[in-house]
C-alpha cells in the first residue's frame, strides 16, 4: 500500500475513534505493524506516516504529545532534555527528536510534543511528576484524548496521575535530587515522584479499567491498515477510575498488594 493510502487509512480510523480538529492528544504507539504495511518496510518512513496522520487529523490548532519518561534520574544519573532517551518506545523517541518538538522539564516523567498548545502545557510546571501542576494535570484539565495505536490500555500511564491525586495506599511521595540540563542551562534540582511501596507486592493492571471504559462506550476502537486505534478522553478515565477506586482501593492493581505471596500469572 502507498504511504499516502496508509495516512488516509489511519486518519479514517482516528476519525471513527472520535479524534477531531483542535484536539490535544497523548499518544502511546507501537508502529511495528505499520512498518510491515509501509513501502520498503522502513521504520523512519512508518513513524513519519503515523506522525503525519495524527497531525493531519488534529490540524494546526491541535497538540500532540508522547511520553518520554526515563527513570535513570532516580538512580542518580543526570538528565538532559536533548540527550536523555525515552524508555517509552521508538515512536516516543522519534517525536522527541523532531526539530519542531519541545520537551518538558521534569527529568523523570517528561513529555515531548508539538502543536498549538504545547507551550501552555509545558510552561511553569511544578516539581511533582504525577500530581498537581504536572503535565498529567494539565492534560486532565484540557480533557486531552488518550490514544493507543496498536497497543492496549494496559499501557495507560495517565492512571498514575489518578493514583497520585487520590493518594492510593500502595504508593507514597519520594523526592529525588540530581543534575538537570534544560534548554542549555545546567543546575541541581529536586523532583517528587509518587513511587510504589516496595514493602508491598504492587502490580499495576489498568486493563480492568480499560474494559469498563469500553463497556460504557467511553473508549472507542477502530481499525486501519496499520492496526488498531483506541481513543478515550482523559476526564472520562479519571472519573471512572475514581468511582472504581471508591469501591476497591486496589482496582488499578492485579491483586491486593498486601499479599506478598501472590505472583503475577
Topology:
Layout: H1 3-16, E1 24-29, H2 32-37, H3 43-58, E2 63-67, E3 79-80, H4 90-97, E4 102-103, E5 111-115, H5 118-122, H6 135-142, E6 145-149, H7 159-166, E7 171-182, E8 185-196, H8 207-215, E9 219-224, E10 227-233, H9 234-247
Parallel strand pairs: 1-2, 1-6, 3-7
Antiparallel strand pairs: 2-5, 4-5, 6-10, 7-8, 9-10
Helix pairs in contact: 1-3, 8-9
Report what the structure shows:
A hairpin with a 7-residue loop joins strand 4 (102-103) and strand 5 (111-115). The protein is built from 9 helices and 10 strands. It is an alpha/beta fold. The relative contact order is 0.16. It has helices at 3-16, 32-37, 43-58, 90-97, 118-122, 135-142, 159-166, 207-215, 234-247, and strands at 24-29, 63-67, 79-80, 102-103, 111-115, 145-149, 171-182, 185-196, 219-224, 227-233. It is globular and about 50 Å long. The protein has a 7-stranded mixed sheet, sandwiched between helices. It has a 3-stranded mixed sheet with strand order 3-7-8.
Overall residue-averaged pLDDT value? 94
Work out the number of β strands.
Answer: 10
The figure for the number of domains is 1
How would a crystallographer describe the biggest sheet? 7 strands, mixed
Low-confidence stretches: none
Keywords, please?
about 260 residues, about 25% strand, 3-stranded mixed beta sheet, alpha/beta, 10 strands, 7-stranded mixed beta sheet, 9 helices
Concise account of the structure shown:
33% of the residues lie in helices and 23% in strands.
Amino acid at each position: 500500500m502507498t504511504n499516502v493510502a496508509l495516512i488516509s487509512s489511519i486518519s479514517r480510523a482516528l476519525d471513527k475513534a472520535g479524534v477531531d480538529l483542535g484536539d490535544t492528544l497523548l499518544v502511546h504507539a507501537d508502529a511495528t505493524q505499520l512498518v510491515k504495511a509501509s513501502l520498503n518496510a522502513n521504520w523512519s518512513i512508518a513513524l513519519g506516516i503515523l506522525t503525519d496522520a495524527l497531525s493531519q487529523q488534529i490540524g494546526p490548532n491541535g497538540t500532540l504529545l508522547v511520553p518520554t519518561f526515563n527513570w535513570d534520574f532516580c538512580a542518580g544519573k543526570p538528565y538532559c532534555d536533548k540527550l536523555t532517551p525515552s524508555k517509552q518506545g521508538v515512536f516516543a523517541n522519534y517525536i522527541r527528536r523532531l526539530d519542531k518538538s519541545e520537551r518538558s522539564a521534569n527529568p523523570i516523567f517528561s513529555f515531548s510534543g508539538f502543536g498549538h498548545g504545547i507551550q501552555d502545557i509545558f510552561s511553569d510546571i511544578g516539581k511533582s511528576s504525577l500530581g498537581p501542576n504536572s503535565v498529567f494535570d494539565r492534560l486532565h484539565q484540557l480533557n486531552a484524548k488518550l490514544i493507543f495505536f496498536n497497543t492496549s490500555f494496559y499501557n495507560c500511564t495517565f492512571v498514575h496521575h489518578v493514583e497520585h491525586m487520590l493518594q492510593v495506599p500502595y504508593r507514597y511521595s519520594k523526592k529525588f535530587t540530581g543534575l538537570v540540563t534544560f534548554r542549555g542551562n545546567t543546575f541541581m534540582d529536586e523532583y517528587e515522584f509518587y513511587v510504589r511501596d516496595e514493602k508491598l507486592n504492587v502490580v499495576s493492571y489498568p486493563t480492568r479499567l480499560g474494559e469498563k471504559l469500553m463497556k460504557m462506550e467511553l473508549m472507542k476502537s477502530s481499525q486501519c491498515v496499520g492496526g488498531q486505534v483506541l481513543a478515550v478522553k482523559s476526564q472520562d478515565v479519571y472519573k471512572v477510575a475514581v468511582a472504581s477506586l471508591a469501591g476497591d482501593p486496589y482496582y488499578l492493581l492485579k491483586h491486593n498488594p498486601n499479599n506478598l505471596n501472590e505472583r503475577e500469572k
